[in-house]
Amino acid sequence: MAVKRITGKERERVGEVLALLDEHYSMEYKCYLDHETPWQLLIATILSAQCTDARVNLVTKDLFVKYKTLEDFAAADLKELEQDIHSTGFYHNKAKNIIECAKTLVTEYGGVVPSDIDALTKLAGVGRKTANVIRGNVYHEPSIVVDTHVKRISGKLGFTKEEDPVKIEFDLMKVLPRDHWILYNLQIIAHGRSICTARSPKCRECFLFNLCRWEGKNDE
């Protein structure tokens, strides 16, 4: 069931969580996917589905040398591109989507990645998560990116009870102040990698322990 209404007490708890995240992690906007242009970030984000950012960065290091422009990707051979991105997983769909996405950007948008979320999500391979990465990192539009870390930790914090990423996004839009929409994702990624890991969360070391709503924290 989605968060319908935020009480004053709950709003205060959210503020305490965000203050601690600000204290322990950077407040600078940082993208973990290497890129030099908006379209490179778009392609890198498509590749990041079910794949680590570190692996994507290894792949794009050579990929963006081989395919220097959007036109290069639009004209790419499907089988060859599949081999180029094979190690990111789901390479057939990703290669097909990247080629179709590049074609649309070249023919309909003059090579410019749109900022409108509806336009973005109409591109092949682009869902709300990818669209929000672009909106936040390229256009600095307040956007909430729901990745695996945000999904897992937001549930533990009691910010959402949903499992669907889109529903989680809308819950978080109600819970979080707009000035933290982008920062929250970046800080939660850092927290999820260092303390609240998926397999072995370090609950006793977590500075959010007293604010966390996860029932399993006392077992860790």
TrEMBL record:
One BP annotation, GO: base-excision repair, AP site formation
Please name the top-level EC class of this enzyme.
lyase
In which residues is [4Fe-4S] cluster bound? C196, C203, C206, C212
Cofactor(s) needed for function: [4Fe-4S] cluster
Under Enzyme Commission nomenclature, its number is 4.2.99.18
Reaction catalysed? 2'-deoxyribonucleotide-(2'-deoxyribose 5'-phosphate)-2'-deoxyribonucleotide-DNA = a 3'-end 2'-deoxyribonucleotide-(2,3-dehydro-2,3-deoxyribose 5'-phosphate)-DNA + a 5'-end 5'-phospho-2'-deoxyribonucleoside-DNA + H(+)
SUPFAM superfamilies for the chain: DNA-glycosylase
Tell me which Pfam families the record gives.
EndIII_4Fe-2S (PF10576), HHH (PF00633), HhH-GPD (PF00730)
Task: Give GO MF terms, alphabetically.
Answer: 4 iron, 4 sulfur cluster binding; class I DNA-(apurinic or apyrimidinic site) endonuclease activity; DNA binding; DNA N-glycosylase activity; metal ion binding
The HhH-GPD domain, residue ranges: 47-194
- This protein's UniProt keywords: 4Fe-4S, DNA damage, DNA repair, DNA-binding, Endonuclease, Glycosidase, Hydrolase, Iron, Iron-sulfur, Lyase, Metal-binding, Nuclease
Q: Is Cell inner membrane found in the keyword set?
A: no
What the record notes about the co-factor is: Binds 1 [4Fe-4S] cluster.
- Function comment: DNA repair enzyme that has both DNA N-glycosylase activity and AP-lyase activity. The DNA N-glycosylase activity releases various damaged pyrimidines from DNA by cleaving the N-glycosidic bond, leaving an AP (apurinic/apyrimidinic) site. The AP-lyase activity cleaves the phosphodiester bond 3' to the AP site by a beta-elimination, leaving a 3'-terminal unsaturated sugar and a product with a terminal 5'-phosphate.
Question: Matching NCBIfam families, A to Z?
Answer: nth (TIGR01083)
The entry's family comment says: Belongs to the Nth/MutY family.
**Which protein, by its recorded name, is this?**
Endonuclease III
Instruction: State the species of origin.
Output: Anaerocolumna xylanovorans DSM 12503
